[in-house]
Amino acid sequence: MDFKKISYYTVGIIFWTSFYMWASCNLLPTTKHVFEAEWKAQTFQSPQLTVELPFQLKVKDAEMSKYIPEELKEVIQEMNILGFEQTDQIMCLITQATYAEYITADLLGAAEGSITTLKNKTEFQNLEFTQQPFPTQGMIGVKQNGYFEKNATKYAFTQIIFTEENHIWQLIFSHKDGDEYGEKICDKILSSIHVETNFQPVS
Questions:
Q1: Most exposed of 10, 20, 44, 99 (fewest Cβ within 10 Å)?
Q2: Domain containing 11: what range?
Q3: Beta bridge partners of 156
Q4: What stretches pass through the bilayer (predicted)?
Q5: What are the strands, taking DSSP E only, across 73-122?
Q6: Which candidate, 140, 158, 138, 139, places its Cα nearest to that of 148?
């Protein structure tokens, strides 16, 4: 496998799979209930990603890793996938991957892989998106906002990707288009993101 495509495939596969598998949980009746639940800071793995959430993420490693090709798994030292789904309402997924030390995570390649992979899946239609830098704690990540249709329903999504050396972080949040509380949840999550980094802060 072309090492330059490692991040492209990793993030692209997770991005598509998160939407493909979205269905299985309905713990709270409305997004309003989710927004009004207790928000708690949750920290994931090392290097650490900390974010405030109104729900507890569940480990998704086993059910999602089966979609990752073996040749890609061979260069991933560690991968942690956690998610929350409320049927047809909201979905949140956080992934942290550490590649072999000789591989540098590719931020723009990861961003391209996400969109290209989703475009190539026939179950998703009318994909549109914008992309912009997403700076935090001295790191520059990528933020993708967009829309797609699945089963005749339109959804909005936001994806944040960060890379540092051989590490990559991915946060995906999606909700029905026009859902006021889905938008509020997304905004509050994004404003709480903190990534532990070895980089010096940007002055």
A1: 20
A2: 3-195
A3: 147, 175
A4: 6-23
A5: 76-86, 90-99
A6: 158
Structure tokens at 166: 């051989």
How far is Cα 59 from Cα 81, in angstroms, rounded to an integer? 6
Indicate the pTM of the whole model.
0.82
Q: Does residue 118 form part of some domain?
A: yes
Q: What is the DSSP track for 8-35?
A: HHHHHHHHHHHHHTTTS---SS-HHHHH
Q: pLDDT above 90 covers what percent of the chain?
A: 27
Cis peptide before 201 (omega within 30 of 0): no
Residue 103 lies in a domain: yes
DSSP secondary structure of 44-82: ETTTTEEEEESS--EE-HHHHHTTS-HHHHTTEEEEEEE
Assigned domain for 203 exists: no
